[in-house]
């Protein structure tokens, strides 16, 4: 019998383009080629789909972030879920065959936000990770917090800044933000990897921070600062009918002198540490794991997710966010949490592909 064909898709039209490539490089290294036929596909920053070549770079080199190499053959995915088609100007299109599973190692808008999931649903192609609704809600931090609060999870105080509000009623927005107390954190509502996030200590820096976030997304979130330790937990769907499983919680600490867990702390060497298991009371760890699974099920996630919390000095757990396609290099937090919980990176990649293969396209 032929091996299942897995298309590992990476890149995309957003500021997390490079992060996607770094994760895809790890997946391509780890996936079992004796078990699967693998097709690496890049989505360039201008939206073109290309077949990756041997010259594709997946790692940061000399401080330079990787980008999709567009020298490979252009690709198209028919809307009927048929064979991938490779084509170049002046050449006859070539069918590459059908794909059994797409592994979208992608983050941010036009990727993790339900858009590529919707495309694959329309084409009738199975894929790794959450569906359209969970992906969209998980990407939009404002709606995410609304949904989680409705499910009984404790969330911090925040203000949503929409484009019209900022342009026409800025003073009201700034006043509402000031009522949160200083400092505040300002972030794009629909971005990840700490892109566009800054810390504001007064009105002047708040205005500058909102403008910086708006460079990534016209919708912005202003959050009250929460003093606490950052504890994270990964959640994984069961291969059978058992409920999702939660990893051992881990504590993230910044080591590079940054004011918070920013892009450099996440993706450059020696900028952060992860302690697994986190040094918290056993009953708190169990409560946190139960809350992580509740967040996963509330959003009706599939495949995997990473759920982030703050643990305060008063012993309270506060939900921060859920990531439906978390950073996925072998050294990223979610894979490390699972490795410390007994599931190494190659096994995690295999589990996610197997989950996708068992899932029927369409409504479920």
Automatic annotation (TrEMBL):
Entry-linked InterPro entries: ATP-grasp, ATP_grasp_subdomain_1, D-Ala_lig_Van_CS, D_ala_D_ala, Dala_Dala_lig_C, Dala_Dala_lig_N, PreATP-grasp_dom_sf
Entries under Pfam families matching the protein: Dala_Dala_lig_C, Dala_Dala_lig_N
GO molecular function annotation: ATP binding; D-alanine-D-alanine ligase activity; metal ion binding
Record-listed Mg(2+) 1 binding positions: 308, 321
Localization in the cell: Cytoplasm
Cofactor: Mg(2+); Mn(2+)
Top-level enzyme category: ligase
Catalyzed reactions: 2 D-alanine + ATP = D-alanyl-D-alanine + ADP + phosphate + H(+)
Domain ATP-grasp, residue spans: 145-354
Residue positions binding ATP: 141, 185-187, 193-194, 223-230, 320-321
Positions that bind Mg(2+) 2: 321, 323
Pathway: Cell wall biogenesis; peptidoglycan biosynthesis
Documented EC number(s): 6.3.2.4
GO cellular-component term (any): cytosol
Keyword entries, A-Z: ATP-binding, Cell shape, Cell wall biogenesis/degradation, Cytoplasm, Ligase, Magnesium, Manganese, Metal-binding, Nucleotide-binding, Peptidoglycan synthesis
Residues forming the catalytic site: 16, 193, 332
Cell wall biogenesis/degradation listed as a keyword: yes
GO biological process: cell wall organization; peptidoglycan biosynthetic process; regulation of cell shape
Entry function: Cell wall formation.
Family recorded in the similarity comment: Belongs to the D-alanine--D-alanine ligase family.
Protein name per the record: D-alanine--D-alanine ligase
Organism: Nonomuraea endophytica
């Amino acid at each position: 019998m032929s091996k299942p064909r897995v298309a590992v898709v990476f890149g995309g039209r957003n500021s997390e383009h490079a992060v996607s490539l770094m994760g895809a490089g790890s997946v391509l290294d780890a996936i079992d080629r004796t078990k699967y036929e693998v097709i690496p596909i890049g989505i360039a920053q201008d939206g073109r789909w290309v077949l990756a070549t041997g010259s594709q770079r997946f790692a940061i080199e000399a401080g330079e972030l990787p980008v999709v190499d567009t020298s490979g053959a252009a690709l198209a995915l028919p809307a009927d879920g048929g064979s991938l088609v490779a084509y170049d100007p002046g050449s006859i299109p070539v069918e590459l065959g059908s794909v059994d599973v797409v592994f979208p190692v992608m983050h941010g808008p036009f990727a993790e936000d339900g858009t590529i999931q919707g495309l694959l649903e329309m084409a009738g192609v199975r894929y790794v990770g959450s569906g359209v609704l969970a992906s969209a809600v998980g990407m939009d931090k404002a709606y995410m917090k609304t949904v989680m609060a409705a499910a009984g999870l404790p969330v911090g105080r925040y203000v949503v800044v929409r484009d019209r509000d900022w342009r026409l009623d800025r003073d009201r927005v700034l006043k509402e933000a000031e009522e949160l107390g200083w400092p505040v954190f300002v972030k794009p509502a629909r971005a990840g990897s700490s892109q566009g996030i800054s810390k504001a200590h007064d009105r002047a820096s708040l205005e500058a921070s909102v403008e910086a976030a708006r460079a990534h997304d016209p919708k912005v979130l202003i959050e009250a600062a929460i003093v606490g330790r950052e504890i994270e937990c990964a959640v994984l769907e069961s291969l059978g009918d058992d409920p999702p499983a939660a990893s051992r919680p881990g504590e993230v600490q910044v080591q590079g002198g940054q004011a918070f867990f920013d892009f450099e702390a996440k993706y450059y060497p020696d900028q952060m540490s992860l302690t697994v298991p986190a040094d918290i009371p056993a009953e708190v760890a169990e409560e946190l794991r139960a809350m992580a699974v509740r967040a996963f099920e509330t959003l009706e996630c599939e495949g995997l997710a990473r759920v982030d919390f703050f643990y305060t000095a008063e012993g309270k757990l506060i939900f921060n966010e859920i990531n439906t396609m978390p950073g996925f290099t072998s050294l990223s937090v979610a894979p490390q949490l699972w490795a410390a919980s007994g599931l190494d990176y190659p096994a995690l990649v295999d589990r996610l592909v197997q989950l996708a293969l068992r899932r029927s396209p369409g409504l479920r």
